[in-house]
From TrEMBL:
This is Helix-turn-helix transcriptional regulator. Keywords: DNA-binding. It comes from the Bacteria. InterPro entries: AraC-bd, HTH_AraC. Residues 157-255 form the HTH araC/xylS-type domain.
Length: 259
């Protein structure tokens, strides 16, 4: 195990062990675009992480984990303080795991397995004894972990580049976007369907969901979140959030609080 300080660097490709674990707590961190030869499991004990990949934005809420496949270019951005564990697996161990960045639910067993592997010495013999059983159980739990819809597919058409440069702001209504882009509403709708599989309204609602989860993780006031996301009242925001997650914002915060 390595404790990664904010000013430290770590290259998982530089080690021969089949699995490596690191622990860290970073604030306002931007990894920059990079890739590595290992699959990575990023588990957040506290805080929220944005993970950018080509054509896809993924949001990792607290107490859940993101699987990042080997060789995939990505960028991790952390807001405020994020307490996390990161495991790196050789490609040979990644069979049966997702081929794109995916957010996974973490049950108590998987959480404990991640913690134990993250704290293990780099010299651990993972091919024998209790360590081999620990690793096999962790991989089995990862393969079975429920997937969470915490991602936003991104359109690739150059006419929408300005929209994608402003993803921290509520996307405009379709009619307003058409005026900004200089294309018809029908054309924009076709582009979104082609590139994301979603209508523009569905895409905008998914943006709202991810932004809401991020702001809740940052402990923003409910009224401020509702206002930022364009809801006239707090109750309208609560109904929207519950409709997509099955939980009220308060219940979501309690469910994702470190235990």
């Amino acid at each position: 195990m390595a404790w990664l300080d904010p000013d430290s660097s770590f290259d998982p490709n530089a080690f021969g062990a089949p699995v490596l674990g690191i622990c860290s707590a970073l604030g306002e961190h931007d990894s920059g675009r990079h890739r590595h030869d290992r699959g990575q499991l990023l588990f957040t004990r506290q805080g929220c992480v944005r993970i950018d990949t080509p054509g896809r934005l993924c949001l990792l809420p607290p107490t859940q984990a993101a699987w990042i496949p080997a060789g995939l270019e990505h960028r991790a951005r952390m807001r405020e303080t994020v307490d996390y564990r990161s495991l790196y697996f050789t490609a040979a161990l990644c069979e049966g795991l997702p081929t794109q960045v995916t957010v996974l639910s973490v049950n108590p067993l998987l959480r404990e397995l991640v913690e134990r592997i993250a704290l293990a010495p780099f010299a651990t013999a993972w091919d024998q004894g209790a360590a081999a059983h620990l690793l096999a159980l962790c991989l089995s739990e990862l393969q079975q972990a429920p997937r969470q819809p915490m991602f936003l597919p991104l359109p690739g058409d150059r006419r929408l580049a300005r929209l994608l440069e402003q993803l921290d702001r509520l996307p405009p209504a379709l009619s307003e976007l058409a005026g900004q882009v200089g294309a018809s509403e029908k054309t924009i709708s076709r582009l979104f369907r082609r590139d994301t599989g979603l209508s523009y309204q569905q895409w905008r609602q998914q943006w709202r969901l991810l932004r809401a989860v991020e702001q809740l993780a940052l402990q923003r006031p409910l009224g401020a979140i509702a206002d930022e996301l364009g809801f006239a009242t707090d109750s309208a925001f609560i109904a929207f959030f519950r409709g997509l997650t099955g939980l009220t914002p308060g219940a979501w915060n309690r469910a994702t609080s470190p235990g």
